[in-house]
Predict the 3D structure of the following.
Amino acid sequence: MGNSAGLLGVPQEKQRLFFASRQRYVCYGGARGGGKSWCVQRKAILMAARYGGIRILLLRRTFPELRENHIRPMRALLRGIAAYRATDRTFEFPNGSLIVFGYCDAESDVEQYQGQEYDVIFLDEATHFTEYQYATLTAVLRGANDFPKRMYLTCNPGGVGHAWVKRLFIDRDFRGGERPEDYAFIPAKVTDNRVLMEKDPEYVRRLDNLPPGLREAWRDGKWDVFAGRFFTEFDRETHVVEAFEPPAWWRWYVTMDYGLDMLAALLIGVDGDGNAWVVGEVYEGRDRGAGHEGLIVSEAAEAVKRLADGRAVTAYLAPPDLWNARQETGRSVADIFAEHGVYLTKTGNDRADGWLAVKEWLKVRPCEDGAERPRLRFFPNCRNILRTLPLLQYDERRANDVRNEPHELTHAPDALRGFCVYRAAGGSEPAPPPREKLIARLAPGHGRGGYAARRNRSEKGGA
């Protein structure tokens, strides 16, 4: 393959970055038309040619996608260079390198790769794979040799794997043994693909004509906007505000979703106009991943008290299941919270009504000053509710409900749902004292001997 540039073509700027990347996990794309398939095929071929004996696995979610997007184009590219064996979907190069094609249509299909070893894995359209499938494949990325060990991912926003791809490559929210230096994201849009822009200028117009949500995801690569998301009302620029010191007179609520898998609790203040501000959160439990343990009830109670931070909390809101008595003790979780000084208030548990209530709180509406604002806003330090809320998708079987998978995404929104269905009262700003009262407080004879007497006692060390 001495004349590889002529055979394989010349990469464009973003594609060059992809080819030059050396991190263990590299994600390319984020929008349609960025030349993802072109990159995957050329990178796999170049690595197979350079490293004799290397083992490369190229995966798509379904076989028809695999066949049409990769096997057929690569058979044309590699005719006379590498032998294709249809029985095991493998290209074998003269130097002993292998490119193996696979697919994982069902969740369990990924288990066929357990025990195998690959030096390089390409996960094409990674957001079509579940986090379980991705995690299983990372264990296959190994080998007792000097070949590079890398996983290359391509993707668009949306799909069943949207959350874990966004967490790792967009939010860079690393957990357990994940190391930031191992992950790189190379964004590419259709405007970065000059060849496509020249040969098919109508493609951009077709992206412009997509429905809202799909258009922003596929054309612009926006990860907070994608087809199928439940809370289309949420917009980070509108709903997230710069943190400030809230007035003490606001009425305060702590709303929670609790189990050993996760304690998700939100501290919410309601101002005098009935607007709600999510100013703090607790998010701890087994669903956070390796190294995290669930909080027992006493620990959870102390955690929500710390969240309140000395504020006078009007109500600690919790779902009805926390009042279910345990057979072995006859006590409920709510009883144990109460024993530790946290007296819970039961919220509604109708999921459809609850999610509609959240939508109403998020909705932007006209205000008396002529501006348009939502009733619910968030401080930026509430990272987990801000991460999970925009990732919730519609349940395909229940039109007014959210999908319960991945389950980790539901905890903080469930806590928020409990607040939104509760008829929270707003705080009342204390009225300033009348001018006459201020004058009287400074006048002689006010209180214990008047102002002059109090000053004299203070100077003499008296009370």
The CA atoms of residues 54 and 416 lie 50 Å apart. Residues 1-6, 445-463 have pLDDT under 50 and may be disordered.
